[in-house]
Amino acid sequence: MVEPILEYENELPVGSTLILTATTTHTEKELYKAALKAVLNPKIGQIIWICYHKVPNDVIEYLAEYNVSQETFDKIQYIDMMSNMLGLEQQSDKTCYCSTPTDYNCLLRNVEQLINNDQKNLIIFDNINALLSYDMVERMIRFIRNLNGLLSNNKCPIIYLGITGATNHEIEISISATMDNVNNLQKNIVETTKVESWKQLKKVSWVDVFSLNSPMIFLLIIVMLLINIFLLITLFAIVFLFKI
Fold it and tell me: How many CA atoms lie within 13 A of 128 on its CB side?
């Protein structure tokens, strides 16, 4: 199924950004949509997609569902950290291959070689949880700091994709501490829902309440009224007993 065309973000990402979402049936879709909103910005001249979760062909197939133009695909260079380990064929001219997922020297070297200082670059790291499954946390954190330092020197933004709740809270805090920005999509959805619910509540009139257009509010008022009547009767009973 072809997804609707996404609108790009007007503001370009700055520094290192970790985009998180909770584990749901739409986790992958939410993360890729968030990445695409940055990728589709016309100011971006080149995208370097670091593959830990999907091999390049699978990434291309997934992005094609969002009507990504050939012009955008032509901007993407891939660093494949998986194919060699999985024994898959390595045939793409637009892909740099590293021997293992923890060959950080290869990854850093390829990033440095691919960055084009004559245009705006964007790095997509797909994804942080997949990397966690290949290495120890301490070593991975050191690598992320090195990568962020390299990209900061080149004024090149990077977006890390991740899933919150997939590891323990201490590790999530350690990873977040290496980032300039953290964007929790799930939290944003909850906050947006709260704001919209409050806006709708403020629009409710007394006519809506008593015409049962807002039955929950009507029920709440009835319950409060009954409670007040009960308290009033109780108060009169207590006063009457004291007089006796």
Answer: 31
